[in-house]
């Protein structure tokens, strides 16, 4: 653990600092490996605060840029976490890469995860090596009969389990994971959803079992009824009922009483959430292009006069190739396009012609050439406007609206100014 990252500065685990330090959740994990009967992740309302809700999903590289921008606007952020909108370890590659990037650049920040525990086990050694200090596991039952009523299914790899078998598998993985997390020196919080008529009388037993595993904190949360789910008609527990249940669970573990049921893209202090305020920034970061490999330093452009991006990919007989130069962009050379005709062979040849370019700017492109060029490592960017603005967007993550191509008519409708020979 980096000495500059003070565990006491986690506002979810330490209520004494909730007004001093904040958190940012990075929505890099869209998929889930279990189906909870209370969960519906289809909705996105900026005024709705609950797990599983986000305005957009980021890649690991986009998430790093987003953290940069968040910290510029809210320096009190002490925690960088991943809490969905699915489960981090149903998206293990993206989750682990995000943690690596954040740990490398911001070693003074606490790293935090929230998971159902199903697939976290194999990653625990690296989580510890990456200085992940806090992990939350949601455990709603330690009795498989009760668990079978809560989970619609559990997926392990390509195998889908249902009923008691699903609940037994999930519980086994959760118990193993919590023990291993504690052995690795990681602080563990347990989330437990109070579901009236299903597990509400069982929650003290969950708290007791978690205490025996060495868990540090217990967060009893009220069910949030969601439309379109099997539990949609169950009434949310009252504050009095929730308080009474926390008092029972407190016999076994300290209770978290200041939970705000954070979104998967939550940002700011617990009592001063800025998810709505940062939504535009989050959306902008989600449009940023991926980092280009070092062996693709150039950008190709389909243009008629060298000022505007104004040619369809199929129209271009010559591509201008640009490179960064002296704080701007320099026309390096022109390269002839492969001859028309030949179908997909033309686009395979174009991929070779532009094999040192990270992107090609065009006013329009068909799906087939776009896919072929993508497979060759070349990104097609549809836009209308000045070449320099397009180059800036590719190289620097500039104005993302440039990447929103206007609806183009098909070649057969006359929307293409080519010679009527299609995109072949």
TrEMBL record:
Record-linked InterPro entries: Aldolase_TIM, Di-Nase_FeMo-co_biosynth, DiNase_FeMo-co_biosyn_sf, Elp3/MiaA/NifB-like_rSAM, Nase_CF_NifB, rSAM, rSAM_sf
Pfam families: Nitro_FeMo-Co (PF02579), Radical_SAM (PF04055)
Keywords assigned by UniProt, alphabetized: 4Fe-4S, Iron, Iron-sulfur, Lyase, Metal-binding, Nitrogen fixation, S-adenosyl-L-methionine
Location of the Radical SAM core domain: 18-263
SUPFAM superfamilies: Nitrogenase accessory factor-like, Radical SAM enzymes
Tree of life domain: Bacteria
Cofactor: [4Fe-4S] cluster
GO MF term list: 4 iron, 4 sulfur cluster binding; lyase activity; metal ion binding
Pathway(s) annotated for this protein in UniProt: Cofactor biosynthesis; Fe-Mo cofactor biosynthesis
Function comment: Involved in the biosynthesis of the iron-molybdenum cofactor (FeMo-co or M-cluster) found in the dinitrogenase enzyme of the nitrogenase complex in nitrogen-fixing microorganisms. NifB catalyzes the crucial step of radical SAM-dependent carbide insertion that occurs concomitant with the insertion of a 9th sulfur and the rearrangement/coupling of two [4Fe-4S] clusters into a [8Fe-9S-C] cluster, the precursor to the M-cluster.
Family listed: Belongs to the radical SAM superfamily. NifB family.
Protein name (Swiss-Prot/TrEMBL): FeMo cofactor biosynthesis protein NifB
